[in-house]
Amino acid sequence: xxxxxxxxxxxxxxxxxxxxxxxxxxxxxxxxxxxxxxxxxxxxxxxxxxxxxxxxxxxxxxxxxxxxxxxxxxxxxxxxxxxxxxxxxxxxxxxxxxxxxxxxxxxxxxxxxxxxxxxxxxxxxxxxxxxxxxxxxxxxxxxxxxxxxxxxxxxxxxxxxxxxxxxxxxxxxxxxxxxxxxxxxxxxxxxxxxxxxxxxxxxxxxxxxxxxxxxxxxxxxxxxxxxxxxxxxxxxxxxxxxxxxxxxxxxxxxxxxxxxxxxxxxxxxxxxxxxxxxxxxxxxxxxxxxxxxxxxxxxxxxxxxxxxxxxxxxxxxx
Length: 318
Known about the structure:
The protein is mostly helical. The chain has helices at about 1-25, 30-55, 55-60, 65-85, 90-105, 105-120, 120-150, 155-170, 170-185, 190-200, 205-215, 225-245, 255-265, 275-280, 285-310.
């Protein structure tokens, strides 16, 4: 367990440093938002490009991993959505947000810094695959459900088109397309350009964690206790559990990729979750769930890694 804490503790200490820096106004929160924009628009895209261009396309497009992580995330999304919509009698936008909160991990900001310490270069390949599911499946599904409920009577094709046009401008999607194109073509980037990509990619981990901590300042845990608890349970417990169970269906998948899948699923929801909540008028619920899940994930991730290691179900952790 001490070995596991040696991996997870520095991650959450960096988040705590970011929180303290903003809370004490050492770094103003608008500056932290700018740092977050740097990570999303430059550092993380370069991390993906670097991961994709140094590997053969057959290694990157791991169909078994995509199938398991995609199916598991969709199952959890559906469970969250239908429980909120049918049992809890929530609006369609609220239900879509609950499904998203349970099934979309903070793969880049929390999952990757942990997985890269565990697995090394394998982490970047798994991150790219998780991004495919989160950005091409879960996010469009949420936007389609949420936007269609807001614009009843509008042309559904128009809603779909707007959603995918917006996704086409997402720097993560653009980076995935660039990286895959370079990998398929066999082109080698000139040394100076690769060095720039490499330097930006290397900045993603610590800056991202600092940004998460700073973004937690001012979020309130109030008024939406039951919705918040349901989302946090779905994200931190149900999502990794479903992924873990589905991995039993793909015995030939690399054990390191199995560990990566479970660990990424253990991460809290992505940090822009509160922005999607604001879009549909449920910023209180999404902000509270984000804060609670981020704080509790230190415990749940550490326990999950300890269980994986002690049971050796996928082999001993490296």
